[in-house]
């Protein structure tokens, strides 16, 4: 019989733990809410960077310069490797026209001698037979060669492609216009003696090029020429979706958009050509997962606060949770609280520090882009010093005595020296009538001499009319028309007439030119008009060579690059020259920057590491793309002190936490562990175990108390031995009957009592009793009952009535003041007839199994426990057990034993178990062992909360009837 439970008080640990869990979860969720956008932005940036790299590749591969140069370079490499007559070369040439839509003429040279042509019947052989030789001539020989080739080159390529310009364009793909068509040519000469002159009369349009190169890049690329209604969408989409996505980017003023489950990036060039890259949006982006975690954090925090509130208001739900938390071990509680008080705040600090580092990195990226663009803009405009130098040279020439006094021979030497030094390109002086006194122009080659004639006369008439003399009154109709034309503001040359001694930039021929002119009104004789000209392209190239011509070791990477890629000429060479492979991503981005005219920022993996690259197209001539390269590692090195501080702080905090854990372990955890081992020793009834006394504090006193208790276990062990000797372990049984008993004490000394013995008249007595409580007091009460029952043989009391009356008086007098009672069932059996007389005192009703019906039933014997009242009322019952029938006496510890969730074994379950075992006709010891196994499986590990005693009587099936 169980003792009434002591009052249970809640320590408050459960609600405080809920509050302690909820607050950090709420803080983490709030931090996650503010940083969730960062995760999403980071994911979007990564996807957009991947799309941008794809788009860079697509734009470059389909651009005119890249498309043509790649195929022509492949053919020249094949010829240099196998020779001009190899069959592979012929097939490669045929593929240029059939596969790549690049019909062309190729002149192949060996040591500057024409070796053969593709096709074999190519025309203009006389022009190209010694073209590479003529490009190496100088002086008058070069002038004669230029005159010889001038008309042929003019017929082939149009103006602006005379021999001296072909020399400057060597190694570059040069665009030309002839009539309504645009073509290109490329001159190549290599150190091994091979030379090539490629002529492409026309370039395939973009709508032809892009479908040919997309299989070489990625199906995620698409392109369109809306003006021609040409649409080639990326794989997995269609033209209509591409149109809608493009329209959205135009309306929103962005290059990137999400549309119809796809991530799109667009770019467009000046000609209206559109490129795009599109990939499906990921189903579970990092931002989405982070959002789920943040939402889960809010829900868990809300749950903790709700359970805390419920526990404070007395709700059963709240107490159910807090009671389970209260049941946690002390060691676990201390460890959990310590972790929450140290590691969790440290984790939050590390998270915030990491987010701060991410912010700093983004600032560094933005700063790299801004400073890179500022530096590139400064570099782009830095050629102004070259223009000023040209002005100073021109002004010095005006004041030169060689000019003023027409000392032509030394003047020629001076001018030629300046031309070779790339200080000027052309120079001439004229008399008051506009006649040429000295010029570097060849009237048979240069096409602007007639325009200069007209301009010089108008300029002299305007700025130095005193030099005209009588000619001032003689003006031809041609001069009147020319002066009127040059003086018109809508033409733009009126400003030129008004600005002598100034460097002016305007287009003369096919490219911008620098022009300086002046007159000599102060002279009476000699020159009257001077003009000095320079190609702005040549000035700019000279400036680029100076600014980017630094020689670097092979493994070094410059901080700035100039990439030769323009609309009129390109070769994708870099200044300074880069060595080795792995630069394609940079060249792809440069091609896109040139095509779109936009500044780009990329993070690229290059041969020497990762770089932040700012690319800006040069706008002065459109010949270069500038790139500013910043090593990512060097910039991120500025974050190293912050990282080290964060790491050092984290390590120091962990060290402090470790020391705190060690201190807590020394002061609390170890003594608690010692006490736990002591409790385990008590459960195992190990009386030899002792808890070490580590300190003379409360834990030391508690250790002493445990040790005293453990020392008393030995005495309890002796008491248990004495008690077991009083109770029959293997009771006797009359012939034709089987009797078995089984006892499981909750402590060393139990309060359950059972007995089986023969009476003097041939009958047998079976007794089952249960004293309230456990331990010594219950064992003493049980011993009193045993002594009283044994005393009946001396007194001759009738059984069971007088015996139970005596026990009732004894318990009422001696044990009721101590709230001790005893339940009992007393059965007197006549083994011959099978009849029995049973009397009960508050004990669970006996169970009877009827073999004939194979069922179990109770023997109802309602009554009060012994000692509860001064005078008890007896209510004996008579019954009979037939062959195969069984009678089971048991204590309430069997049916009231709880499982880990507190659910009892229950009477119906016990009845069903007893019925099944009896139907199976198990031997009585096996049946009782099966009952114990079922109870232990229900209760789980650990001791039983109450004593369990079973007494089973069964009549053999072969017993004769009475």
From TrEMBL:
Gene3D superfamilies for this protein: 6.10.340.10, PPM-type phosphatase domain
GO MF terms, alphabetically ordered: phosphatase activity
Keywords: Hydrolase, Membrane, Transmembrane, Transmembrane helix
Record SUPFAM superfamilies: HAMP domain-like (SSF158472), PP2C-like (SSF81606)
GO terms for cellular component: membrane
Matching SMART domains: HAMP, PP2C_SIG
InterPro entries membership: Bact_Sigma-Reg, HAMP_dom, PPM-type-like_dom_sf, PPM-type_phosphatase-like_dom
Highest taxon of source: Bacteria
BP GO terms, sorted: signal transduction
Pfam families documented for this protein: HAMP, SpoIIE
Keyword Signal: no
Protein name: Serine phosphatase RsbU, regulator of sigma subunit
Source species taxonomy: Bacteria, Candidatus Ozemobacteria, Candidatus Ozemobacterales, Candidatus Ozemobacteraceae, Candidatus Ozemobacter
């Amino acid at each position: 019989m169980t003792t009434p439970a002591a009052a249970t008080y809640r320590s408050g640990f459960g609600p405080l733990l809920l509050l302690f869990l909820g607050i950090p979860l709420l803080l983490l969720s709030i931090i996650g809410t503010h940083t969730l956008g960062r995760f999403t932005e980071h994911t979007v940036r990564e996807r957009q960077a991947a799309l941008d790299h794809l788009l860079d590749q697509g734009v470059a591969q389909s651009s005119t310069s890249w498309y043509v140069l790649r195929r022509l370079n492949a053919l020249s490499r094949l010829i240099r490797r196998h020779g001009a007559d190899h069959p592979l070369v012929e097939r490669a040439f045929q593929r240029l026209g059939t596969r790549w839509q690049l019909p062309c003429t190729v002149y192949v040279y060996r040591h500057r001698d024409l070796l053969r042509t593709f096709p074999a019947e190519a025309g203009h052989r006389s022009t190209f037979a010694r073209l590479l030789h003529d490009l190496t001539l100088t002086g008058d020989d070069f002038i004669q060669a230029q005159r010889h080739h001038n008309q042929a080159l003019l017929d082939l390529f149009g103006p602006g492609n005379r021999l001296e310009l072909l020399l400057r364009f060597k190694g570059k793909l040069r665009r030309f216009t002839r009539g309504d068509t645009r073509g290109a040519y490329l001159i190549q000469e290599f150190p091994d003696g091979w030379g090539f002159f490629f002529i492409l009369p026309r370039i395939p349009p973009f709508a032809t090029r892009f479908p040919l190169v997309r299989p070489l890049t990625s199906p995620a690329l698409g392109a369109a020429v809306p003006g021609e209604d040409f649409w080639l969408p990326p794989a997995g989409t269609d033209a209509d979706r591409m149109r809608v996505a493009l329209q959205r980017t135009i309306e929103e003023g962005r290059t990137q958009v999400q549309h119809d489950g796809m991530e799109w990036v667009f770019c467009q060039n000046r000609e209206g050509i559109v490129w795009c890259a599109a990939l499906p949006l990921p189903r579970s982006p990092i931002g989405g997962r982070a959002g789920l975690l943040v939402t889960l954090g809010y829900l868990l925090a809300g749950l903790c606060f709700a359970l805390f509130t419920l526990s404070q208001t007395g709700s059963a739900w709240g107490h159910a949770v807090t009671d389970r938390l209260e049941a946690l071990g002390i060691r676990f509680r201390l460890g959990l609280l310590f972790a929450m008080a140290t590691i969790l705040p440290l984790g939050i600090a590390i998270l915030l520090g990491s987010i701060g580092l991410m912010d700093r990195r983004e600032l560094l990226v933005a700063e790299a882009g801004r400073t890179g663009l500022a530096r590139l803009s400064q570099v782009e405009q830095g050629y102004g010093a070259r223009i000023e130098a040209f002005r100073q040279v021109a002004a010095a020439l005006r004041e030169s005595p060689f000019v003023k006094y027409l000392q032509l021979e030394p003047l020629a030497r001076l001018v030629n020296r300046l031309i070779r030094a790339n200080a000027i390109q052309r120079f001439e002086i004229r008399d008051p009538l506009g006649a040429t006194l000295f010029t570097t122009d060849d009237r048979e080659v240069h096409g602007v001499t007639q325009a200069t004639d007209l301009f010089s006369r108008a300029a002299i008439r305007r700025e130095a009319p005193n030099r005209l003399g009588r000619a001032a009154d003689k003006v031809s109709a041609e001069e009147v028309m020319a002066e009127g034309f040059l003086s018109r503001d809508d033409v733009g040359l009126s400003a030129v007439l008004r600005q002598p001694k100034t460097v002016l930039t305007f287009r003369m021929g096919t490219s911008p030119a620098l022009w300086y002119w002046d007159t000599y009104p102060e002279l009476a004789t000699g020159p009257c008009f001077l003009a000095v000209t320079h190609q702005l392209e040549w000035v700019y190239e000279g400036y680029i060579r100076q600014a980017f011509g630094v020689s670097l070791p092979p493994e070094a990477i410059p901080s700035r690059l100039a990439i030769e890629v323009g609309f009129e000429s390109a070769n994708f060479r870099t200044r300074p020259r880069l060595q080795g492979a792995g630069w394609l991503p940079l060249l792809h981005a440069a091609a896109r920057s040139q095509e779109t005219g936009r500044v780009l920022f990329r993070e690229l993996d290059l041969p020497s590491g990762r770089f932040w690259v700012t690319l800006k197209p040069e706008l002065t001539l459109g010949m270069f793309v500038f790139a500013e390269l910043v090593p990512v590692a060097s910039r991120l090195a500025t974050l190293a002190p912050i990282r080290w501080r964060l790491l050092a702080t984290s390590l120091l905090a962990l060290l402090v936490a470790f020391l705190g854990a060690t201190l807590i372990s020394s002061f609390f955890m170890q003594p608690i562990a010692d006490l736990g081992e002591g409790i385990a020793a008590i459960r195992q009834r190990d009386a030899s175990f002792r808890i070490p006394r580590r300190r003379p504090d409360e834990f030391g006193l508690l250790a002493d108390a445990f040790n005293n208790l453990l020392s008393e276990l030995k005495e309890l062990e002796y008491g248990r031995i004495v008690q077991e000797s009083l109770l029959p372990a293997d009771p006797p049984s009359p012939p034709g009957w089987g009797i078995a008993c089984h006892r499981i004490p909750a402590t060393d000394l139990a309060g359950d009592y059972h007995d089986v013995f023969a009476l003097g008249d041939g009958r047998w007595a079976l007794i089952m009793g249960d004293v309230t409580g456990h331990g010594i007091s219950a064992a003493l009460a049980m011993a009193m009952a045993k002594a009283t029952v044994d005393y009946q043989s001396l007194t001759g009391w009738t059984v069971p009535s007088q015996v139970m009356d005596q026990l009732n008086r004894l318990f009422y007098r001696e044990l009721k003041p101590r709230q001790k009672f005893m339940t009992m069932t007393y059965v007197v059996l006549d083994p011959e007839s099978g009849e029995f007389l049973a009397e009960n005192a508050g004990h669970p009703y006996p169970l009877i199994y009827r073999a004939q019906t194979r069922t179990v039933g109770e023997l109802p014997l309602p009554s009060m426990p012994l000692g509860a009242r001064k005078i008890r009322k007896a209510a004996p019952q008579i019954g009979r057990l037939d062959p195969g029938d069984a009678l089971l006496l048991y204590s309430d510890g069997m049916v009231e034993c709880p499982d880990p969730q507190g659910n009892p074994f229950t009477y119906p379950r016990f009845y069903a178990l007893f019925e099944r075992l009896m139907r199976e006709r198990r031997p009585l010891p096996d049946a009782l062992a099966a009952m114990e196994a079922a109870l232990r499986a229900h209760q789980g590990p650990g001791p039983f909360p109450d004593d369990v005693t079973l007494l089973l009587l069964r009549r053999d099936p072969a017993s004769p009837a009475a």
